[in-house]
Model the fold of this input.
Amino acid sequence: MRSPSSLKYGHGPVGIPQFTCGIKSRLSFLKSSRRIMRRAILFSIICLSWAAQVEVRAADTEPWNDPFWILLHQPSAVAELDLSPAQEQQFHAVRDDLDLRFLPLRNRSREEALSTATTLVAEAREKMQSLLEPKQQTRFKQLVLQRMGNDALLHEEVANRLNYSATQKTKLEKIDADTQEAVVELRKEMNDEGKDRQAVQQEYVKLLEDQQKKLVAVLTPVQRTALRNVIGEPFRGLKDNQPHIRAPDFGAEGEWINSSLLSLKELRGKVVVVHFYAFGCINCIRNYPWYLEWSERFKDKDVVIVGIHTPETSAERNSDSVRRKAAEAKFDFPVLIDDKKVNWNAWGNSMWPSVYLIDKQGYFREHWAGELKWKGNDGELHMRQKIEELLAE
Done:
């Protein structure tokens, strides 16, 4: 699969960068037994925690993994704030602007991405502080803590409210360090193609359950009551792991095949499938049958397929060749010739081929990087089912 040689960090086949969470490496939601729920005061954190990934702690501190940033893009979390119509309009304007500046970072150097993303997340916090009423701010802080899972006990605000003793702090940090060391080992196992990934997943869930018990055991009864107040009422919507990220509109530059100038705004109300490709890329060509199959399957439904041809080689920069190859491939859907990489960069794309699904409101909802049938993965089935889900919304 083609990917720029300058790419310095990975991107997952997800709901958007690997800054959020990946389909292939995604673990199922944490499940706690009723016995654990009875024993642990952290039930409202752990039992409702989102789909966890086996990641190194350093990655979790990156700005795109900030629970605050993630929850801003989770509709159920936004709904929990009960925004007024005026607030809602302002909220979406602010978030959409941030998204359109955030997405291009996905194919920048790691250093630039970290620096700019950190600035954008800080800006988001500042603007939400102004937009939300005090009660809404408090609730959102509670959602963030619940989203953090076990890590919430080491959060500065929780530590200050519970007033840990020096001994307690040392014990909590030791439990956390031991757990993270085990997580790193599990991640290595996840990357081992010969390893049973489901077994690793179960081991990971057990690891967090054990961590939970140990952490709670350090707290006094008074601190457990205080913790309940800090984290607030359990938020059932944390299981909703579908980020909504504003998709940039198609750039005005570039020629269109099979269509006049298109915009995502005029396609609102339809599910839009966007695939980036280059006609000389064999991995892209192997995806062609599925685009044609989707085109036929959904021809009488509100689905629009759009190809964006972004060249890598000099031969792929010839627009006549792009048109000829599109005709040979039997593409009867719109194709945008993206010679100057305007769209490639606006979308932060980094790999040929890449497929994105845009919902009826113009938000990114799913992303598959690479061949849809790569090494036994069934990305075609996954993306087709997702298209059907978006149609039903």
